[in-house]
Amino acid sequence: MKRINRMVVLSLVLIVLSSAVVFAGGGQEEPAAPVVEETPMTHDELVAAAQAEGKVVVYSITSRIASAAEAFTAKYGIEVEDSNLKDFELIEKVSKEGSTGAIGADFVICQDGGRVMGELINLGYLYNYVPPTMKDVIPVEFQNPLSFAFINKVFIYNDESAPIPPFDNIWALTTPEWAGQFQFKNPFQEGVNANFLTMVTKPEVADQIAAAYKDYFGKEIELSTPNAGYEWIKMILENDLILTTSDTKTAESIGIRGQNKPNNAGLFVFSKFRYKESKNLALEPMMEVAPFSGFYYPIYALIANDAAHPAAAKLFIEYLLTEEGFAPWGKDLGTYSSNPNIPLQPLDHPMTTWVEILVEEDPAYCFENRADVEEFLNEYIY
């Protein structure tokens, strides 16, 4: 068993999570973002105010913001200064600027719900804004904090080497046949992956994992860890889980043709499925895995408390929630707008399908428990 020679435990500031909203997908509770009371403007008034400001600054965890910014400028004549950051870089940058009073982003497009809640929203560095034109469009359960979009990561396999899905139960990944054959991006390099591993330890999910163990092995699970979720994490790590540095590299490694490896799969963003055609890769998602086929998480759009261009930030958020503004993401499968009126790509599945088969990220649970899970991971990850 490989062990780490360093400790990389995320230090989270434990504060009271005073308010919550219920997510319809899984009935989980998450703290609500503060809402700044303002005099509402009509769309035309907002456009005029935003154009008077003349500029907007956005930090984003998705590079497609550059295309959206170009289209926004063309439409409204407002300059956009956009920065594409990794999730941890964005959180640290906004936290530093918020704590020192430095002027930075006007709004952010961010992920890693637990850290966003605990370190940015609850400390008052970001606040929630829902465009009045969207209040009757965006489902209320996605409005506080405002979810701009959702991303999913799904078990995907090489369908040239295996004409049918090579497993239908997550416990197969702990068997000798799958030793060194399963790939997943290092959770210490992407917060949402650490959140997923945290979520499998949530009692309700862990109970499902225990039931799947009994279905697969024909006996009750014997625990050497706190629950079946921890046990599954331990066993896939001990089974030589391949920890990668990028979902793109994972997709390319798994999907390359001519491998003749019947056991060859990974858990990565479903959007990479587009490589099936663009890069001629053999990729196919697994939609019927017990007790889950992967996980999904929200991407939030939130305004900085000290925004220098608040009207432009609000207008840009409104724009991103429209079909035109979402086009840089909507042109491919695997990213889902919170606006249900925006159509999907023909080969994609609606969020109603994914919600039923994927683990949902619960920011409150991740905020409270991720440090414990990361400490556990440190015993096994190199």
Task: Give a summary of the structure in a few sentences.
With 382 residues, the protein is α/β, with parallel strands linked by helices. 35% of the residues lie in helices and 16% in strands.
Describe this entry's structure for a reader.
The chain has 382 residues and is α/β, with parallel strands linked by helices. The protein contains 13 helices and 14 strands. The strands form two sheets. Strands 3, 4, 5, 6, 7, 8, 9, 10, 11, 12, 13 and 14 form a twelve-stranded mixed sheet that branches. Strands 1-2 form a two-stranded antiparallel sheet. α1 (43-53) crosses α10, α6 (203-217) packs across α7 (228-238) and α10 crosses α11 (323-330). The longest helix has 15 residues, at 203-217.
Principal-axes shape call: globular
Q: Give the termini distance in whole angstroms.
A: 10 Å
Radius of gyration from CA coordinates: 21 Å
**Largest beta-sheet characterization:** 12 strands, mixed
- What is the CATH architecture term of the largest domain? 3-Layer(aba) Sandwich
| Topology as a string of helices (H) and strands (E) | EEHEHEHEHEEEHHHEHEHEEHHEHEH
Number of domains: 2
Q: Which structural category fits the helices and strands?
A: alpha/beta
What's the CATH H-level homologous superfamily of the largest domain?
Answer: Periplasmic binding protein-like II
Average the pLDDT over all residues and give the rounded result. 90
Strand segment count: 14
| CATH topology annotation of the largest domain | D-Maltodextrin-Binding Protein, domain 2
CATH class of the largest domain: Alpha Beta
Summed up, the helix count is 13
Q: Classify the helix fraction into a percent range.
A: 25-40%
What fraction strand?
15-25%
List the uncertain runs: 1-31
